């Protein structure tokens, strides 16, 4: 791994429920290097999204960070006052969630939404925002003429591309993608992720990629962490985690991937 950009140390997150605290994330530690694609895998409910929200401090009650550190370039995000956090969110850490389509305002033209984000974070003028929006649309493969359209005029895949474009417009150092394409059909899903990888190569940002799709994760990521019931049971290089998993549960996860006849097995796909 390259030099660490994000270091998560002993992170514990609780949900404070009427019947008592439920620990959803238990003493989790891992690093994400600069320019690294890091995947977090594990069954539904194992705590992946809770970690994603904790990193950006977007976790809302009843979630409560019970302990640990989240260091971005050595600075503990958990200790930053809310006012300083605004500089980190979007500007340094971009977020693309499964419900990203909902992060677009249905009443605003897309161009205005670019400007809104760029003005708020960089003080950009309308002309500069327009130029940047055109550049970003080109990067994600949407004609610039469509910048004056409203979100409902785009397909689901295009809307997700728009959210990625807005996120990238601020050149964040880390992008958190939590099931970014789950709601889309597999062809569009793959197209978008391939585009993200291309952009990653060009821009050099780091990615925390969360998905149920272990096969996809193995193809995209450099390193993988495997979670089970709130604990990180294994972290390693994608080859090591797939070829020589240290944990029984990781072996089960790989074993659960259906292999189509004539289709290369995962182990071959990443070889
Ligand atoms: N608002 C909440 N209140 C109470 N418990 C919650 C809340 N949100 C999540 N949890 C619980 O915390 C645990 C971890 O949930 P989380 O959403 O982080 O898992 P996940 O691995 O991201 O799952 P998925 O892959 O289905 O999104 C689960 O047991 C879930 O039921």
UniProtKB/TrEMBL annotation:
It is a peripheral membrane protein. Keywords: ATP-binding, Cell membrane, Membrane, Nucleotide-binding, Transport. Its main location: membrane. Residues 6-254 form the ABC transporter domain. SMART domains: AAA. It is found in: Cell inner membrane. One of its GO terms (molecular function) is ATP hydrolysis activity. GO terms for cellular component: plasma membrane. One of its GO terms (biological process) is transmembrane transport. The keyword ATP-binding applies. CDD domains: ABC_NikE_OppD_transporters. PANTHER family: DIPEPTIDE TRANSPORT ATP-BINDING PROTEIN DPPD (PTHR43297:SF2), OLIGOPEPTIDE TRANSPORT ATP-BINDING PROTEIN APPD (PTHR43297). Belongs to the ABC transporter superfamily. This is Sugar ABC transporter ATP-binding protein. It comes from Mesorhizobium kowhaii.
């Amino acid at each position: 791994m390259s030099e660490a950009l994000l270091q998560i140390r002993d992170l514990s997150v609780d949900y404070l429920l009427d019947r008592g605290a439920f620990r959803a994330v238990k003493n989790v530690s891992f690093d994400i290097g600069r320019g690294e694609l890091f995947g977090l895998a594990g069954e539904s409910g194992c705590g992946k999204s809770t970690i994603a929200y904790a990193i950006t401090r977007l976790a809302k009650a009843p979630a409560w960070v019970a302990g640990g550190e989240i260091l971005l370039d050595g600075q503990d995000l958990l200790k930053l006052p809310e006012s300083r956090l605004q500089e980190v969110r979007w500007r340094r850490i971009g977020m693309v969630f499964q419900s990203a389509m909902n992060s677009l305002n249905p009443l605003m033209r897309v161009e205005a939404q670019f400007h809104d984000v760029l003005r708020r974070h960089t003080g950009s003028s309308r002309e500069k925002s327009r130029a940047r929006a055109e550049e970003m649309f080109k990067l994600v493969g949407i004609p610039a003429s469509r910048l004056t359209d409203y979100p409902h005029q785009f397909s689901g895949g295009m809307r997700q591309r728009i959210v990625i474009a807005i996120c990238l417009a601020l050149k964040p150092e880390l992008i958190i993608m939590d099931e970014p394409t789950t709601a889309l059909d597999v062809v569009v899903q793959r197209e978008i992720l391939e585009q993200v990888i291309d952009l990653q190569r060009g821009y050099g940002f780091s990615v925390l990629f969360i998905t149920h799709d272990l096969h996809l994760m193995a193809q995209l990521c450099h390193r993988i962490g495997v979670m089970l019931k709130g604990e990180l049971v294994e972290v390693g290089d994608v080859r090591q985690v797939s070829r020589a998993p240290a944990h029984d549960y990781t072996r089960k996860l790989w074993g659960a991937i259906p292999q189509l006849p004539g289709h290369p097995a995962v182990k071959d796909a990443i070889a």
